[in-house]
Amino acid sequence: MLEDTQGLHVVAQTPFAPDDTVDHDSIDTLTAFYHRHGAKGLLVLGVSGEAQTLTPDETVGVAAAYVAASNGRPVIAGVSSPNLALLAEVTAQVRAEGAAGVMISPPASVRTDEDLMAYFDAVFARIGDVPVVLQDFPASSGVKMSVPAMARLIGAFPQIAVVKEEDMPSARKVAALRATVPWPVRILTGNNGLYLPQELARGADGPMAGFSYPEMLSGVDRLMRFDNDVAGAHALFNRYLPLLKHEAQGAMGIALRKEVMRRRGALAHAAMRAPGGTLTAEDIAELDAILAHMDLPA
Amino acid sequence: MLEDTQGLHVVAQTPFAPDDTVDHDSIDTLTAFYHRHGAKGLLVLGVSGEAQTLTPDETVGVAAAYVAASNGRPVIAGVSSPNLALLAEVTAQVRAEGAAGVMISPPASVRTDEDLMAYFDAVFARIGDVPVVLQDFPASSGVKMSVPAMARLIGAFPQIAVVKEEDMPSARKVAALRATVPWPVRILTGNNGLYLPQELARGADGPMAGFSYPEMLSGVDRLMRFDNDVAGAHALFNRYLPLLKHEAQGAMGIALRKEVMRRRGALAHAAMRAPGGTLTAEDIAELDAILAHMDLPA
Amino acid sequence: MLEDTQGLHVVAQTPFAPDDTVDHDSIDTLTAFYHRHGAKGLLVLGVSGEAQTLTPDETVGVAAAYVAASNGRPVIAGVSSPNLALLAEVTAQVRAEGAAGVMISPPASVRTDEDLMAYFDAVFARIGDVPVVLQDFPASSGVKMSVPAMARLIGAFPQIAVVKEEDMPSARKVAALRATVPWPVRILTGNNGLYLPQELARGADGPMAGFSYPEMLSGVDRLMRFDNDVAGAHALFNRYLPLLKHEAQGAMGIALRKEVMRRRGALAHAAMRAPGGTLTAEDIAELDAILAHMDLPA
Amino acid sequence: MLEDTQGLHVVAQTPFAPDDTVDHDSIDTLTAFYHRHGAKGLLVLGVSGEAQTLTPDETVGVAAAYVAASNGRPVIAGVSSPNLALLAEVTAQVRAEGAAGVMISPPASVRTDEDLMAYFDAVFARIGDVPVVLQDFPASSGVKMSVPAMARLIGAFPQIAVVKEEDMPSARKVAALRATVPWPVRILTGNNGLYLPQELARGADGPMAGFSYPEMLSGVDRLMRFDNDVAGAHALFNRYLPLLKHEAQGAMGIALRKEVMRRRGALAHAAMRAPGGTLTAEDIAELDAILAHMDLPA
């Protein structure tokens, strides 16, 4: 079901209202914003979707709202958890709401190739035949997977249809994975899109990342994969790079991204739910300086 | 409400039936077993209570069942989670079911004294005036708290009524805490009870630990704290030490503890829920050898 | 002695000959290259100086060679080690060779504010009155230091004359440190210079970083701190950003940096000593593509 | 050369004089003490040998002194280091002084099976044909090795003649290794000897551990492996268990072990070199209480 996963898949924000509840109206405007700027699909409830601040009910509600707003375009939901029972329950619930698949990163307790295989054995015994995006992001998960280990895992579990590859250096790992893991497994890349031109040149099928100007991500993807316009891709990427890099600063980066998207009308309120990042006056001035000295389209 | 927390508080098991559901009948027999062997209260849903294998509904169900079986003796529920919204929701639910308090260990994202204070600020903003046991167990949590940091935390949040101290070397830390943190804050100790005589000699108020012979834990506590019979306490402790140490082996240790308690009639089935430990024939033979060469009462 | 530490301090490479020995001739050309492009001083034997591949004798030899080539400009030597006796011995030796000071990052065994203070107590008891750069780089050291803890440390040990600040988000931490730690303690910033304009705007005294075009680092520093030309600084920074970011990829990034500097004539051979990074034909092609699509001066 | 490695190999202490220099006289008495109580060989310069407080010259000096005192019985030297050049240099030096082999634990940078193989490739490229004890101690190294990965490693490098197995639960891992790795590779066990009877029952070739009563370790080994007296082995082990467990408390445990051995005349001074553990009056009283309530031979 996820075999056709290519092109930009935006890592979506979770918007909150001033009263700290989930802002469902902004889910509609965000979804339209993402799609208007080239998203083929969405990844919701990732780390930068503030999943760790939502109750299970809110979690399922956010997934359902994004599915409803997406008009048939795919929505993949992050469900990683150290608690396998919770992972399985949330998986079943978001699938019932229409999620096309789920994204899973192994928990920090996985420390060897054998642990990795055993973990996903247990996962699939519980969730069954659900299409899965395997997230490879050691900087966040603490789990380092070698390419041979990933290949064995993917060979054993055909439900793994996509890899979100964000182990560094990512372009090299994309190339090594692509040489080892056969189609139709897809490889998308994350890491805030910081190495997107290189990743696409080495065989990635598109970005799965968040950025306040998603049109850059979809544009670079198109220029590299379809138009064969490497110079154009680099030029587009480099133009946005100062902001892209500025958003790649953990929780503060998410707060900055929400603020820029608020200014662009994509959501009503930039607030993150505690304990997320908040922006000071200095942070805002710093953001304004970066934007002022970039060469952004009007 | 937890100010009188002293004496043995058993870290309770979660029993499962052969069909992998929670075995509520065995919760009744376990509770009676724990109380019969000297428990003043129970700590349910800790790591060795296999909390990470339960759905949120099952979690609350286990807490409610232990409360119902306890006839008014206190039940404290472990609610630690990297997800603060989930922690708060489960806290409210177990409190509604009658839990006397909750136990919280800071998440691995807490890395400085400032992080620690900020984390519990966020926790109490959400859960309100709930009595809390602060768990200090770096080997599991990854969070190391200094005694001054713990004292500042406890000074700032009077809801913290008890510390479960299991940082190594634990007896030294109990003494340092006791010299710094004023009454009525209570200090119980865990770490499978492996250093219980020393911890009690240095000022601990009792064990909060699991063992298949809880009468040893309550006996040592009584001999040390009330009868001033150090020789008797050491003799009792040393007699059980080979098995105590054998149960202190992570997931396999929990499986062994369940098996011994099954043999003692405390629960119907020794099974752990996946991905918990299972015992092989060699593991059973090894357990039998240890039991055979101890000098246990008939 | 390090009180005047400001402006660009280049994190220097260690050059190797084809026979895998240290290439002392290239130390001379590298030093001239760094100074020609604006370095006020050098930091040698850091992680990107491949210190972990050198024997103690080679370590001291590299420091001595950089001092000899520097004609009186300061050389600071990285001496961090989990072995305190080795740290002290190397400190004495590089000081005897003329190093202006040493840089120390706490070892991973430091986990609380108290540990931190005790560690530097032990350090200074052994090394005495040596000027020290305190490196704050949790992504590499595993040690997170809060601003209050750093301030207490600096207050207790006047030998700490400089902080190399590279905890993320770094600009925020520079501002918080600057507001807390009084002059004349200097704050330089690392992290490959990726957030240099923001760090300088928030009070940093210059970069302590490596880049194959050090003239960008010194130029941005001058434009921000002396010429008050924020627009010029951003323009200069953004022009080099695609390569700056590409070099920020761990061991592969060091290999890329050496390759670009080899092309610029700064050293004779780009090789890293094993187990350092090696570049494949694809890596070289990728580097060429990045360089081709930047707007670099001839 | 290490193929006959079986029976007790004591993890030796490094003794210090009151002036903080290495106490070479006590190396002689310690060696005699270890051999008199059943040691077939020694492991020097391990973590509990305070290797991290010695300079490279002291390191080699300690190894040489133990070799000289051992009258031909084997001495194996711990040489683990994140710095491969240092590891290789120390290996060559201790071999020149007569060490029978070296013990190596992989550094924390090893995170996958592929990393593990690459690391030892680099090690053996540098140290050549030196007999090696592979230490498997994740609680200290941070590196978890699966049994298949260890088997591949041992298959690739015949220099690995012995495994020091101390991953928990250790008895299970000994059995799995023994079933996978063919003779003549030997398996010794560490972890302070806490699970020695079980490890020997599952196929270990003896303990490689430290304890202030090494005659217990050699006695249990003999009773289990040669006399087939399981009851006798358990009885002997259980008699000493309260102290064995008390010494298993990190740096404080090493200090306690030195103190007991000082009382037994094995070394002249119990001091550890900073930043090692020091004992307070309460620690001494605690030790005395444990000893008083055990049933030790006169």
From TrEMBL, chains A, B, C, D:
It holds the Pfam family DHDPS. One of its GO terms (cellular component) is cytosol. InterPro entries: Aldolase_TIM, DapA-like. Keywords: Lyase. The keyword Lyase applies. Pyruvate binds at M208. One of its GO terms (molecular function) is 4-hydroxy-tetrahydrodipicolinate synthase activity. Belongs to the DapA family. This is 4-hydroxy-tetrahydrodipicolinate synthase.
